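May I ask for a single protein's sequence together with how it folds?
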Amino acid sequence: MADSFQDNTQFLMTEFNTRLRDLDERNRLIRERVLLIGKNLISSRQEIEDELREIKQDNQKIKQDLEKIKKISNSLLTEFNKFVKREEIIVVERMLKDFQPLEFMRKKDVEELIQKQITTLKSN
């Protein structure tokens, strides 16, 4: 009976050692997985931070470009308002047709014409 008790104890101790080794191995694997997950988490976080930094830079550049576009469009609008409108050109064209500035003569031209007329009358 002592032999049987010793065999049972031996069997239980062996079983206990086997289970303890299994638990230690499982614990080691879990620890390795946790470390790997931690490394992956750190790596992913760094990548996300880099991407976020790039997005912020792109966003800032877009804002600057948008401000430039706003300034240029405002400048164009103010310049556009300075342009002559079609109706105004038509009015000026009518005035020029009525006025006919090319048919006017300068005072000097009139004097020369009078002189020519006098000389032609004298010569006749």
